[in-house]
Design brief:
The structure holds two protein chains of two kinds. By secondary structure, chain A is an alpha/beta fold. Chain A has a domain of 324 residues: Amidase signature (AS) enzymes, CATH 3.90.1300.10. Chain A is 39% helix and 13% strand. The radius of gyration of chain A is 21 Å and the shape is globular. Chain B folds into three domains: 295 residues, no CATH class; 114 residues, no CATH class; 58 residues, Arc Repressor Mutant, subunit A, CATH 1.10.10.410. The longest helix of chain B has 20 residues. The chains are: A alpha/beta, B alpha+beta. At the A-B interface, helix 10 of A face loops of B.
Amino acid sequence: MFDERIERSAAQIAADVNAGRTSACEVAEATLAQVEAVEPRVGAYLTVLQAEARAHAARVDERVRAGERLPLAGVPLAVKDNMCLDGTRTTCGSKILEGWIAPYTATAVARMLQAGAVPIGKANCDEFAMGSSCENSALGVTRNPYDLTRVPGGSSGGSAAAVAAYEAAIGLGSDTGGSIREPGAFCNLVGFKPTYGRVSRYGLIAFASSLDQIGPLTRTVEDAALAYDAMSGHDPMDATSVDRPVESAAGSLRADLRGLRVGIVREFQTGALGAQADAIYRDAYRDLERLGAELVEVSLPTAGYGLATYYLIAPAECSSNLSRFDGVRYGLRVEGKDVREMYDRTRAAGFGPEVKRRILIGAHALSSGYYDAYYVRAQKARTLIARDFATAFASCDLIACPAASCPAFEFAAKSDPYSMYLMDFYTIPMSLAGLPALSVPCGWTTPEGGRRPMPIGLQLCAPLFAERLLLGAAHAYEQATHHAQAHPPALDEVPA
Amino acid sequence: MIGAYEAVIGIECHVELTTATKMFCGCPNSFGGEPNTNVCPVCLGMPGALPVPNARALEAIVTTGLALGAEIPSFSKFDRKNYFYPDMPKDYQISQYDAPLTQGGSVPYRLEDGTRKACRLTRIHLEEDTGKSSHAGSGDGRIAGSSYTLLDFNRAGVPLMECVSEPDIRSAAEAVAFLESLRRTLLALGVSDVKMEEGSLRCDANVSVRPAGTAELGTKTEIKNMNSFRSVERAIESEIERQIQILTSGGRVVQETRGWDEVKGVTHSMRSKEQAHDYRYFPDPDLVPLTISREDVERLRAALPELPWQRFERYTQTFGLGEMQAEQLLDNLPLASYYDRVVSIGGNPQRASTFVLGDLSRLANERGVAVSDSKVAPEHVAELAALVEAKTINSKIAKELLARMWDGGGSPKAMVESEGLAQTSDPSAVEHFVDEVLSGNENVVADYKAGKTNVLGFLVGQVMKASRGKADPALVNELVKKKLS
């Protein structure tokens, strides 16, 4: 039922456009048609950029006709709505920014466009990237294309759903504690978070500055590598972006895992995932072994403190980062009798419950008398967690573990905030340590009471700056297993 | 009454640095301009914008610290000071909390009676300035009663140095001397234009009093809103007096922030300690910790210019200038460097100071052009000084020549030569003028001989006039006396 042009990977689309077999305009039109067809059911986008998509596509075709060869020529792109694109509405899924038009473009987005990608729309997300299901968006509901009764994951749920539903070939997400990897796992995609500092955060509306990292959601590892190659590298506009050379990841994809030691984390073998998922992960580890890797057990004794550590550091930073949404200069303003009351009313009306919860937790953790007990202690724990990873990587090259605590769940299934926080149990430690990590489809499991099998993801994690190794190994695994090769059946059920 | 009490004063200064660009973005760092024209996403605190520190501003702080003998720790960092205020775009200020760029050091200063003191510094750190609020609708520009507020973010993000002193200052006059010395230092370093009236220097004073001779500190108040050195002096004097009155009448000083009212000449309560903010300082996660290498520190130390107190010593000790003259030069750095050029070319230091601080400065005032911007080349001033020193011309001719040099006359030596202005030191030539005058003033000569020796000056003057000012006055004097005896 799909237009075959949009089912192709980003790599194939770019190759076809560069070779003149199709044009960026054709791909854009086909993608916009798909958006029109599936959006009523999926709801991946908060804003569809028809005019911008057509204009960018035309420019790409011109450049290709002029002889340029663009790594992402004509590749349809979904941009998470916490990244600025000049002249377009950028909301962070929040009422407080509902009508805000970004006056500049984020570096990562600009680099993707420069490489030939065509922006299709701004994708839904949990408000200010706080959440694991996209349900915290104040502006729209996004459904999982593999089962419309289930969430796409979050916070980059819109970008994930868009790519899964062929409404884009690459989705840009941001990952603070798992916000790319978890929706990747939920939507049968590759979700890749590079090393902290590899991709510029300039123009990414901050949730927690020391953790936020932009990365791609794609249908193949090769596409993730292409996106990474286009986006990464030092940006003078971001003081935390790393000034060291980036070697092409697309050129480092490999066919096997010979010579690699893959660490399996002892502390994560708890049986908490259930027998079905445990079996899938055991198979996945065996597949890695079959590809030539040597499995070694490693220990991350402090990783279990990751969640508690994260829920002090991230809220502390967010309490300060979100202060600027005060009704004075942009976004929502609710008038009051004086400026103080205007602040209070604006923020009370503009922020949703999860954002408020985190601002309160964070302000408390930073307040005088509690700072040492909470914030400083959390920073120390963070150092210990990073040290555990460093120790583990002395005896292995990669770490393999689950990407999420369960497959995509039904809407409103995790109404208790803490059960939602637990979704990121396996992804948060890597975020605290700043490590590159990705989720890659590793199997299917039918949730209890579920109508059909849902995808689950294997998480691979590498030492700092070892993106090439990470993507190379993930590619070998993907090519040998083909778990990702499936159409989202939910889209076939209800005709558009 | 003051005799029984001693004041204890510490100063906190905010100084805007004169870097080319703002602290964390590429906007020009310039004063004034149409409101909200000198802004970008970063200094407006737009969503997603990130700060990148200005390396020149960091260097300016380290340089200032080195000039004042401060310690430069190898580790420093930026912290966020969180509080809501409409003219602060991010609702937090990027500042430095517990790891400032410099620690310790001191500002030396000289009191009017010549006493030298130094006030220790606690720290100097770097932060960003806020925008400006203009409260409208209340008539007096105050927030109370205003119906709306206009915001101008042109100043937002300008690099701001905060310099905190120890409570070593003991009087209002000392506070001004401290500020004056700090101002001269910053000017010498070229890190700020230090203009209190434009707000590039702002200062608060912590004031307390205690019985003279005791060691324990009294309760302090913080004085704000002082807009000139004069108002610093008046505000501190007034606050000392207020506190002493409270104590002598058996009351207690309340720890609070007080604003100086320039018109009424008193301080008034602004907010008490109980209303103090919890700023929730924490390291700014958008910025990486600062590592200050020892090589950079030594490079900056080696590049330090001559500092005001060193210059003062050189002028008074090496050049033999008076303290007044030295101070005059310290307060006008372009003039001082002009003067130094004259001297370095070979001009006699004292003669040169007479020309530069006297005649040339007077001309500069009259014409409204700085000496250093005038047509008078330092080489020519040195030449002129040499002509006087060699007695080729006398000081009267020199004065005339300076005026002509100001109007573009060029080399004084050339003028002297082409116009034959050289002093006549040939006794036979001068003798000719003397004879002429004495024979033409027989009555006066008779008076002299009758004992009215005070007419000598008249006769000498006549000889000088006859020589058109060119005769060597000393020689004329000598010859007239000889002829009359």
